[in-house]
Amino acid sequence: MSFEAFEPGYKIAVVGAGAVGCYYGGKLARNGGNVHFLMRSDLAAVRKQGLHIRSQDGGFHLERVNAHASTEEIGPCDLVIVALKTTSNPALDALIPPLLKENTAVLTLQNGLGNEEFLAGRFGTQRIMGGLCFVCLNRTAPGVIEHYGYGTLSIGEFGRASQERTRRIVEDFAATGITTRLVENLATERWRKLVWNVPFNGLSIAGGGITTDLILADEGLHKLTRNLMAEVMAAAGNEGHVIPHEFIEEQVRRTLKMGAYKPSSLIDYLDGREVEVESIWGEPYRRGLASGTEMGRMEALYYLLKKLTPPGMVRHR
Amino acid sequence: MSFEAFEPGYKIAVVGAGAVGCYYGGKLARNGGNVHFLMRSDLAAVRKQGLHIRSQDGGFHLERVNAHASTEEIGPCDLVIVALKTTSNPALDALIPPLLKENTAVLTLQNGLGNEEFLAGRFGTQRIMGGLCFVCLNRTAPGVIEHYGYGTLSIGEFGRASQERTRRIVEDFAATGITTRLVENLATERWRKLVWNVPFNGLSIAGGGITTDLILADEGLHKLTRNLMAEVMAAAGNEGHVIPHEFIEEQVRRTLKMGAYKPSSLIDYLDGREVEVESIWGEPYRRGLASGTEMGRMEALYYLLKKLTPPGMVRHR
User: Fold this and answer.
1) Residues B65, B38: one domain?
2) pLDDT class of B120 with cuts at 50, 70, 90
């Protein structure tokens, strides 16, 4: 299997054209990328009116979008970007194979832990890359993505050092104007991101639907946030991903500057969409238990969130 | 200070005439007890129409009730029953002194930990007794108490063996038809009750307003319930109150039989009343921390409940 850098005009599929898929895929397409979107409910709207990215940092409109109803219709690609909600991962078993040829790379931009492992187990370890999105997005209508802020990407190989293809993909994202970082230890980066997501995404829901500023302004939840971060860091450390203790202080400081921020899981929850409970809380909790880490706070938060956000729930606002 | 058994016709004050105070005080009064109720919002209604206790086990109506607007009006008593919500404990500083003479006993029927200590610090250790109520009650209108089930009492001295007065009070409650148990280690009993209250009262609120059967039917919350019980038992053990591990299984079995039960804190929460967060979760959490007990699940639950049920909250149903 060869993984040289892609030829010019290499073909890209975006599987899971929600907010993340449309935003990052749309950026590549706008910059001349040969991007093909798998769409379901938004297909007709996007074929008719294209893709609208609204943003204070400069939104844009893609009039003509390669929107497809199936991955068979898209056919084999050089790069598959997986941006499906992790709650829909089982669907990937059927969606991915039509997109693969010998050297197709599969880049998951999904949240939490376990997604690279899931894809590697099915489609081969060497294909797999992962990306972490630090962004606040919402799909507000069919084909309409609202970008509220941030947007940086961190991209790396799954379980190995960066390759020529990694640098190429990082360059291509960077060329669209997105701050993109190549990371040499993807697993450590995933854990570092969870240090933030576990408390803030979780407490924003379990705390009654509150923004990050209210979590930090509450003395008890502020303390719980720091202690949850320490649990996640201990679990990471027990898997060999050492995160220095000062990271907690940095995260708190950074979050205070963000103001009344709605974590992505809170947006999902308030909009009645499924919350990615297993990849953000379930998998780190199980990994922590497996390595003998004390995970009491994480356990409480995980099981409460699982109950509060049942699969397939639709809440009425 | 002498604490002989009370003379016949001994005078009793009930401070905090909510559901618990009216139910237990009403039982004593109906049986000929010389009971005086401190009332606030219900005073006019009770003076006019008396006290209604509704129950499937046989309700009753007290036509004439000694209802008072102040403890000065009641004056010195032989026994003071404290049934105020623990969230109003600071009010006791002013309410109790007019009721005291040299050998007045003070029996708190309040929930959780720390109430005997609170009263002992202010009014003298030797006066203090405690009672645990296993009952499901709700005040549904001024002067109207709904009794949904259970009702047993466990009564003991604070920090010492039972006295003649303890036996007398136990007998007098038993004579009203209430199953009443004299306990020789009140503190252990308080911890044992918390083994149930901490998970069930807490998760019924934090889990989204659910009854105990739904907590146990949910695989994650069921596991969390047992692990929270183990944390409470570890904290109790570190204070010398050994509760055998089988207690967890017993509590789960007992609760399964209760069906769709609403813990008292859930009723408070749903009715928009303050929840007794400090005495049920805060104090045991702090005691556990002080004795070096690992209390991660308790910490998460405590701080979430504190945020979800702010003091003075009034929710609209």
Assistant:
1) yes
2) very high
